[in-house]
Design brief:
The complex is a heterodimer of chains A (447) and B (143). Chain A is of the alpha/beta class and 447 residues long. Chain A folds into two domains: 6-24 and 112-338, 3-Layer(aba) Sandwich (Rossmann fold), CATH 3.40.50; 343-441, GMP Synthetase, Chain A, domain 3 (2-Layer Sandwich), CATH 3.30.300. Chain A has eleven helices and 20 strands. In chain A, a hairpin with a 7-residue loop joins strand 1 and strand 2 (110-115). In chain A, helix 10 packs across helix 11 (397-415). In chain A, 45% of the residues are buried. Chain B is of the alpha+beta class and 143 residues long. Chain B has two domains: 3-69, VC0802-like (2-Layer Sandwich), CATH 3.30.2130; 71-136, ACT domain (Alpha-Beta Plaits). Helix content of chain B is 31%, strand content 38%. Chain B contains five helices and six strands, in the order βαββαβαββαα. Chain B has helices at 16-26, 52-61, 82-90, 120-129, 137-141; strands at 3-11, 31-38, 42-49, 66-76, 97-107, 110-117. The longest helix of chain B is centred in the N-terminal third of the chain and has 11 residues, at 16-26. Chain B is globular, with a radius of gyration of 16 Å. Chain B starts with a strand and ends with a helix. The relative contact order of chain B is 0.21. Classes of the chains: A alpha/beta (447), B alpha+beta (143). The interface between A and B is medium-sized, with 20 and 23 residues.
């Protein structure tokens, strides 16, 4: 137990991480105490939640045990939109020292705020995230998450600086310059979205920079979008770095909600600050540990915008076995899909991650791709556009057509849907500097 | 003597070919000959230049997918039956042509054609044994 408080990699003691190993009884006590406090806070200061609690006949004092969280009403992204911008804030604006906003894919963004205390908690959970992934003082970290309204860039920045790492605040984009900096500044660790990193591998290859030979990068934390285990393997094999999954969402705090440790087998939730439940998205009933459902989070310490039973739309399951690292924080399984991302085509449920898995079955190096949905004569069509890389290119048309068919077949095997695969030139699918836009739904355009 | 051909993946869309040619022009790459093979949605542009490595680098830096293939440039008599006389040499050996196209220039009054065979090494042996002139790069592009 004590040994675990020392970072195995560089033998440094990180007091912040001690909380990761709290005895479970004590952890549940802390959670209950904080749950009571946050329930009282929203009841007293957030009219919408008070109305809902009143409608359900629940008062703050009814929360006596942790399970009583189920008595409380759910909150959703819609509530944040409906009360835009500050409707769910529980403190006066004079207490708010930072605002961030999440890019809504439709309509208005949602706005979140932080008090001074919230900022400190955020830095703490980010530090715990980074220590868990082996980061420490002495690391030169290239942070390529977007700086600005997005929580990714500044969120990681705060934790990195607080832990004493050297931060290079690159933000996303300017990929050739990213590679140059990585090389010249002796970068040892990176932070960005997994899809952007895959793009950087492409750019490095084009510039003749060999990740393993020419760069000192050894680890990376990746998040802000769902990714698959196959993609991790691709990243690790191609670049020679260790890739860790981190999880967070702006509504809850930004990055720093859950993260992988060196064991890479699920993400430890910082349970002293976030109370998790897994529910069946159809009827919102709790599901047993180990069963997949929608992740619901109650913020236990947030002051500016505490959220009760927030429906994340992310699908995961609670890991039942203890982790080899010794952390007592429970783990959630890697989130490879969101219920929001799912699309229904001709009555079949499809997740973009299935397409990714299918492509990786045929092509070891994940090509850049985009799923395009259209409607022809009232019938939904799925087209997958795949960028041809130099490695995929063959000098014979027949071989290229064969590749096209193998990709389509692989997708059909996994999704059960006949799919048209279109081979396109490299760089023609728009690159996002943040989250990859894998899905283009044009079914409701035009007719 | 084999020469290096660069094949580039192009989508069948207006302006794609022009864009690539512009890239090559800006890099000062002179095209000795080229051919476009296409299917429904995409095509392969095959190019021969004096500096294949540089050409490939220029093309890849501009963001295109490209690959190198070995081909041979043969002297084909410029008279009726000229091409047939070359192809007949291969027939008894079961060698077949995957594709071929002509050079814009001529050598000694004869045509120069680029060939890709299913078995390049065997084809070369057979052709040379039959006395067909296989051009060296220096003969095509100068020193």
């Amino acid at each position: 137990m004590i040994r675990n408080l020392w970072n195995d990699l560089n033998g440094t003691f990180f007091p912040e991480s001690a909380l990761d190993y709290m005895p479970v009884d004590r952890l549940r006590e802390v959670q209950l105490q904080r749950l009571k406090a946050v329930t009282a806070l929203v009841y007293d200061h957030v009219p919408l939640i008070r109305e809902r609690m009143t409608a359900k006949g629940v008062q703050a004092a009814d929360v006596r045990r942790l399970e009583d969280v189920r008595l409380l009403p759910f909150t959703s992204k819609l509530d944040l939109r409906d009360t835009y911008p500050y409707g769910l804030f529980a403190v006066p604006m004079s207490e708010v020292v930072r605002l961030h906003a999440s890019s809504g894919t439709t309509g208005k963004p949602i706005v979140v705020g932080y008090t001074t205390e919230d900022m400190e908690v955020w830095r703490q959970v980010i530090m715990r995230t980074l220590y868990a992934a082996g980061y420490g003082r002495g690391d030169v970290v290239q942070n390529m998450f977007g700086y600005g309204l997005f929580t990714g860039g500044l969120g990681l920045h705060g934790g990195l600086e607080a832990m004493g790492a050297t931060v290079i605040p690159m933000s996303g984009g300017h990929s050739e310059r990213q590679i140059l900096v990585m090389k010249d500044f002796g970068v040892t660790a990176v932070c960005c979205t997994p899809s952007y990193f895959v793009h950087l591998l492409e750019v490095a290859g084009r510039l003749g920079v060999d990740f393993k030979r020419d760069l000192k990068v050894r680890r990376g934390v990746f998040g802000a979008e769902p990714w698959t285990e196959q993609m991790r393997q691709y990243i690790e094999i191609t670049s020679g770095i260790k890739a860790y999954d981190i999880y967070g969402l702006s509504e809850i705090v930004g990055p720093g909600v859950a993260s992988e440790c060196l064991c890479q087998s699920g993400l430890h939730v910082f349970e002293d600050h976030f109370l998790i439940e897994i529910v069946d998205p159809a009827n919102l009933a709790p599901v047993p540990d180990g069963v997949e459902g929608e992740l619901v989070i109650t913020t236990l310490s947030k002051q500016a915008i505490p959220l009760i039973r927030y429906r994340t739309r992310d699908l995961t399951a609670i890991e039942t076995r203890p982790c080899a690292c010794g952390r007592t924080l429970r783990r959630i399984r890697r989130i490879s899909r969101r219920s929001d991302d799912m699309f229904i085509i001709r009555g079949v449920n499809v997740y973009p991650s299935q397409i990714e898995t299918a492509l990786l079955k045929t092509e070891a190096n994940l090509p850049h791709y985009q799923i395009v949905l259209t409607r022809r004569s009232g019938l939904d069509q799925m087209e997958v556009r795949v960028e041809v890389t130099g490695e995929m290119l063959r000098d014979r048309l027949s071989e290229m057509e064969d590749l096209q068919q193998r990709l389509a077949h692989s997708i059909e095997q996994i999704t059960g849907l006949h799919t048209e695969v279109t081979l396109v030139q490299p760089g023609t699918i728009p690159r996002s500097e943040g989250k990859a836009q894998r899905l283009l739904d044009k079914r409701n355009e035009g007719k | 003597m084999k020469i290096h051909q660069i094949s580039v993946f192009l989508e069948n869309r207006p302006g794609r070919l022009a864009g690539l040619c512009q890239t090559l022009a800006e890099a000062g790459v002179n095209l000795s000959t080229l051919t476009l093979a296409e299917t429904g949605g995409f095509g392969l542009l095959r190019l021969i230049t004096a500096e294949p490595d540089k050409t490939k680098e220029v093309i890849e830096r501009a963001g295109y997918a490209a690959t190198t293939t070995e081909v041979v440039a043969l002297q084909v008599p410029d008279r009726p039956g000229g091409l047939a006389s070359v192809l007949r040499v291969l027939e008894p050996h079961g060698l077949s042509v995957e594709y071929m196209y002509a050079f814009a220039m001529r050598k000694g009054g004869d045509a120069v054609m680029v060939f890709r065979f299913d078995n390049m090494d065997r084809a070369l042996t057979v052709l040379q044994a039959a006395g067909i002139n296989v051009f060296k790069p220096v003969e095509l592009f100068g020193a």
